[in-house]
Automatic annotation (TrEMBL):
Name this polypeptide is given: DUS-like FMN-binding domain-containing protein
Sequence intervals crossing the membrane: none
Any one GO MF annotation of this record: tRNA dihydrouridine synthase activity
Species of provenance: Cannabis sativa (Hemp)
GO-annotated cellular components: cytoplasm
CDD domains, A to Z: DUS_like_FMN
Residues of the DUS-like FMN-binding domain: 1-167
Top-level taxon of origin: Eukaryota
Chain's gene name: LOC115712773
InterPro entries xref list: Aldolase_TIM, DUS-like_FMN-bd, tRNA-DUS-like
Length: 217
C-alpha cells in the first residue's frame, strides 16, 4: 500500500487502498487465515499523523507480524523530505515492529532513522539502487558497484529491462543520461550490448559459453 504511482492508484492498488481501511482489514485477515508464513504490509503517511496512527492500530489488530511505514504522503514527491517524526508517532502507538522507510541514502542513515523514529528495522529503496554497497560501512565508489552489477547481471542472466532500469537510475543520480554512457545504456537491447558498452565482451563470452556447455551436459 505504499506505491503512489498512477498505474497502481488507478487500478485500486498500492496507495489507493489507504482510503479503504475495511478492505485493508479484509485482505490482511484473509492472508493471516490462509497462510502459514508471517504477513507484513507497508503504508504511507495519511493526511494527519492521527489518521496514520489510527490506521496502523487497525492493521495491528489483524495480526500482522510487522508494519513498514514510508515517511511521505501520497501526494509527496521523492524530493520532499521524509517525515521521520510521523513514523515515530506510529512506533509509539503500536506494539508490533515498525519498519522505517524514507531518505536512507548512506550507511549512517540506517542508525539515524532508527534513533529518530524508534523503529525496529529499516527499509531502503533508492539508496540501494544507486549504490548497493550502502549496506556496508565501507561504501564502494559507485563506478565500481556499477561495473560489478553489470558483471553479475551477465553471470545470472538478469532480466534486461531490470538491468537497464537499475543502470539508468544509477547514471541519472550520479551523472546524466544524455552523456555517452547513458545514451549507450539506453540504446542497449541485450546483455551482450551492455557487455560491449562496458568493455566486458570477454567476460560475457566466457559466461555464455560455460552456460551453454552446462545445458549440453
Amino acid at each position: 500500500m505504499g506505491c503512489p504511482k498512477a498505474f497502481s492508484v488507478s487500478g485500486g492498488m498500492g496507495a489507493a487502498l489507504l482510503s479503504k481501511p475495511d478492505l485493508i482489514h479484509d485482505i490482511l485477515t484473509t492472508l493471516k487465515r490462509n497462510l502459514n508464513t508471517p504477513v507484513t504490509c507497508k503504508i504511507r503517511l495519511l493526511k494527519s499523523s492521527r489518521d496514520t496512527v489510527e490506521l496502523a492500530r487497525r492493521i495491528e489488530k489483524t495480526g500482522v507480524s510487522a508494519l513498514a511505514v514510508h515517511g511521505r504522503k501520497v501526494a509527496d514527491r521523492p524530493r520532499d523530505p521524509a517525515k521521520w517524526d510521523e513514523i515515530a508517532d506510529v512506533v509509539s502507538s503500536v506494539s508490533i515492529p515498525i519498519i522505517a522507510n524514507g531518505d536512507v541514502f548512506e550507511y549512517d542513515d540506517f542508525q539515524r532513522i532508527k534513533t529518530v523514529t524508534g523503529a525496529s528495522s529499516v527499509m531502503v529503496a533508492r539508496g540501494a539502487i544507486w549504490n548497493a554497497s550502502i549496506f556496508s560501512p565501507h561504501v564502494k565508489p559507485w563506478e565500481d558497484v556499477k561495473r560489478e552489477y553489470v558483471r553479475k547481471s551477465i553471470l545470472w542472466d538478469n532480466d534486461m529491462k531490470n538491468t537497464k532500469y537499475t543502470l539508468k537510475e544509477m547514471i541519472m543520480h550520479y551523472t546524466c543520461l544524455e552523456l555517452p554512457e547513458g545514451k549507450g545504456v539506453t540504446k542497449s537491447e541485450s546483455l551482450a550490448d551492455l557487455a560491449g558498452h562496458y568493455g566486458e565482451e570477454k567476460y560475457y563470452d566466457f559466461v555464455t559459453k560455460n552456460r551453454q556447455m552446462k545445458y549440453i551436459e
